[in-house]
Every structure is written in C-alpha cells, then in structure tokens.
Design goal:
single chain, 492 residues, mainly alpha, hpI Integrase, Chain A, 4 domains, three-stranded antiparallel sheet, 10% strand
C-alpha cells in the first residue's frame, strides 16, 4: 500500500474591496479569434462609478503604480479622471462662452447673423483648434505670442487673448475637469493712449460733424460719459428741473448708478435735441438718435471728419508712413506689398479723458470728479487725468512768480553774497589787535594758526580743528588749541 501525499495549492490572495484591479482586456480580431491586449489597463471606482484607463505599457508594474496613484488622488480628493486627457480646446471655449452668457457680460457681442463672439477669441480659435487641453503648454502659448507679434498685433491685443485663454483654464479647474493649468506669460503694454481735446479743437470738430453726432460729441466732451452709456441714454433719465442726468444701475460699465450734472452748453444742446425729437420722431425713447432709431456704430464717419479737420490721419500698416485711402502708401506699393491702412488720431474715448481733465482743471474735488466719471480706483483716475503742455507752462509761470517774491532774489538773479562776506571779514580784522593782546606769549607760528582756525570756523565749521592738528608747526597739544580757540571766539 503506497503513501498518498496531498499537495495543497497556494491560496490566491483575494482582491481588497475598493482597491481596483489590473487586467489586460480581450478583444476579437478580424479573423474571429479572441486575443488579449498587449497593454495593461486599470479599473477603479469613485462613488460607485467605474473608471477604466490604459497604462500605455506592457509591464504590469507600471499599471499597478498608476492604479496606486489614482487611488491616492481619490483618497486626497484631487481626482479628475481620464476625461481630462481627452478634453480639447473647443470644450474649454464652450464653457467660457457659457460663463459669459450666464453672468450677462457686456463684452459678449453678437454678429448680424446672431453668432456670439468675444474680442481676442478668434485668434485663439485659429491657433489652438483641435488641440487637447494637456497639449496647450507654456511653449505652445509662447509660439502663439510669437505668431501674433509677427503679424503685427500690439501687445495689448495679445494680452486680451491670453487673458481669455487663462479664464478658460480657470473655469475648467473650478469645475474639476483639469488637474492643472500652464503658465501664461503676459506682455508689457506700452500703447497707453494720452489723447485729449482742447476747446478750440472741440469747436472745430463740432462744426464739421453731422447734426446727429453733435449731441454725442457734446455729452462726451462735457461729461466724460462712455459711448455705450450715451447711446443707451433715454429721456426719462434726463431731468431738466434738477439739471442732471441719472444713469440707472446696470447701464454703466461697473453696473453702479451715477448722477452727472448738466453744463450750460450741454443743457442747451439737449433742449434742442428734445425739440428735434418731438418734431421728427415723438416715439423715440433715446436721447441720441438717427431717423427715429438708436445710433449705431459711426466709426467711419468719425474718422473721416477727424482726418478732414486735421485731428487724425491714415498710416500704412507696414511702414507707418502717411497714406491716402484710395492710393495707399506709394512706398510700399512700389515694393509690391498689399494696401493695408490703419487710423491714428482722435478716438471717441479721448473725450472721456478730456472730461476728467476738465473737471480737475475747473477745481472740482477729485473725489467728486471720480463719482461723476465713474472711476472706482485712484490709479485709473490718475491715468485719465492727463497733463498737457499748457499745464507745464502754467507750472513754470507759477514757479517764476514764487521765486520773484523771495527776499533778495528775482527772476534770473542771485543775491549779493559778496557784500556779506566782505562785512564778515571787516569784523574779523577789527578784532585782530584785541586777540593779539590776549594771545601774547605765543610765537608767530601759533598766532597764525589760531587766526586761520577762527577764519576757517566762520566758513567751514568742524573742519578747522583737524587742519590745525595736521599742520607741522603746531607745538601745543590739540586740547590746548581747542581751549584757546574757544576763548578767542568768546573774546571776539
């Protein structure tokens, strides 16, 4: 009878609940055979929802390491999921427009066909179309900046596009759809406008503009209101009894109400505008109108008039030389470049800077001027309070008047310093005999040292003692010389 040995198979370790699994999925090939994938996959759960993700490796250890990483992210509450790698730029753009639409942003515009657009996003659509969100790195952003600069776009326009892209990533991070965002290198903006309008230029431009734009110019010049606030202004917001204009909440840029006083000429213009409205279109609710409707975009008419009166000009976009609308730039046309012009000169927003500047020059307190213009921060208000050449000349004139009122001074002259020095020397020489009587017993060398010490103390206090101490002929100690100097000054 033989010996029977029972061999026990090793027990397989049971998988911990919630610990996920590592496997290689099977698929059926074209020939109908069931095959196994060479790459390892992981499977894990979060709140009862299963997630499957490829480790992109043929090694099981790599898949296990990825599984432990995902479980750690779930435990720490920073898990995003594999959908972040599949997210594309179009998904970010859709969420960006939805945020603007939900918050009622005024910078969300519409074309005539009804499609929505935001300034600076069209350039992003052209460059990042079809890109995954994880592929939009800082290097790709720098490539976008280089492309836009090569096209001649200013730094301010590039920064607006970068700000829109950065907002897209922040929304994705807030929604938990991305794990991180790249760094956005912003450019330094140097195109800060400093344009304003003098009163003589205002009169010249007012006479050249068409009649329907003259009230728009007057309101912008006298009040510093924004163009959007002027175009949407209604007659119920104008009070001739109180001599003011009330901007309701939601009609301004920062959605805060404002009260704007009416100047003398502006009140007369608005009264004429009201009479014109009662005759032509009594049902029109808007203060500025054309043919009974709200005024639309008038940038072409504005630029044409500004060029005609000398407040603007057309420049070549390639060489920045003066050009004409029909002929273009003669220099670039000879080189075969396409005609591309740009406008440089007075824009309507310069009237806002002019209104702020006029309020300050009129003596209105800056806090009141900020309430009228609608500026919330002092930095932006100072940016609009432009200093002109006339202001610098007035400052120089006031400085000359102040210097002329000083005692012993006048414009271009200096006081008589020589006479004062001569008077001091006379007083010093009159007391030489008295000092010599007190300083008897000293040799001539020591007497000269004391006298030079007194003279030096009159003009350079504190330096005389050091000069005497360094002289070679000094025979008395330094303390004795100081004592005699003190007595000599008291005696004089």
């Amino acid at each position: 009878m033989g010996l029977v040995v029972e061999i026990k198979q090793p027990e397989q370790s049971r998988r911990v609940r919630g610990g996920g699994s590592v496997y290689r999925p099977k698929y059926r090939a074209k020939d109908g055979q069931l095959r196994e994938s060479p790459c390892w996959w992981i499977k894990y759960y979060k709140h009862g929802v299963s997630f499957r993700e490829s480790a992109h490796s043929k090694k099981k250890a790599v898949a296990e390491r990825l599984l432990r990483k995902r479980l750690g992210e779930i435990e720490a509450g920073v898990f995003v999921g594999p959908a972040a790698e599949r997210m594309r730029y179009e998904d970010l753009r859709t969420a960006f427009f939805a945020d603007y639409r939900a918050n009622g942003r005024k910078s969300l515009f519409k074309h005539k066909d009804g499609t929505e657009y935001i300034c600076g996003v069209a350039e992003l659509d052209e460059f990042f179309a079809g890109c995954r969100a994880v592929e939009i790195t800082t290097d790709r952003i720098r490539a976008f900046i280089a492309k836009r600069q090569k096209e001649g776009a200013p730094n301010a326009s590039i920064n607006r596009s970068l700000s829109a892209l950065r907002r897209m990533f922040r929304l994705a991070l807030e929604d938990g759809r991305l794990r991180g965002a790249p760094y956005f290198p912003m450019l330094k903006e140097r195109n800060i406008r400093k344009g304003f309008l003098d009163h003589d230029q205002y009169v010249l431009l007012r006479d050249a503009l068409p009649d329907y734009l003259k009230p728009v110019l007057a309101m912008g010049y006298f009040t510093g209101m924004r163009l959007g606030e002027i175009r949407s202004l209604r007659w119920e917001q104008v009070s001739f009894a109180d001599n003011q204009v009330r901007l309701d909440p939601g009609t301004t840029k920062n959605d805060e109400p404002r009260v704007i006083p009416l100047a003398g000429e502006l009140r007369a213009i608005l009264e004429m505008q009201l009479s014109r409205r009662n005759l032509e279109c009594p049902d029109c609710p808007f203060v500025v109108f054309r043919r009974g409707k709200r005024i639309g975009v008038f940038i072409k008419a504005w630029r044409s008039v500004c060029i005609r009166v000398g407040l603007g000009q057309l420049l070549c976009a390639h060489c920045s030389r003066a050009a004409k609308r029909k002929e273009g730039c003669p220099h670039c046309s000879k080189q075969g470049r396409p005609k591309k012009l740009r406008y440089a000169g007075l824009i309507f927003h310069d009237l806002r800077r002019t209104g702020v500047r006029n309020l300050v020059r009129a003596g209105v307190p800056e806090r009141v001027a900020m309430a009228i213009s609608g500026h919330k921060t002092r930095a932006i208000f100072d940016r609009y309070n432009i200093v002109s050449e006339r202001d610098l000349k007035d400052a120089a004139r006031k400085l000359d008047h102040y210097l002329a009122t000083q005692d012993g001074q006048s414009t271009g002259k200096v006081g008589n310093r020589k006479g004062r020095d001569t008077h001091q020397m006379r007083e010093l020489s009159s007391s030489v005999v008295m000092r010599r009587g007190w300083l008897r017993g000293l040799d001539s060398n020591q007497d000269n040292q004391i006298q030079s010490l007194v003279c030096c103390q009159l003009h350079h206090p504190g330096a005389a003692v050091k000069s005497v101490a360094k002289s070679r002929g000094a025979r008395q100690p330094l303390l004795a010389l100081r004592r005699r100097l003190h007595l000599a000054r008291r005696f004089c």
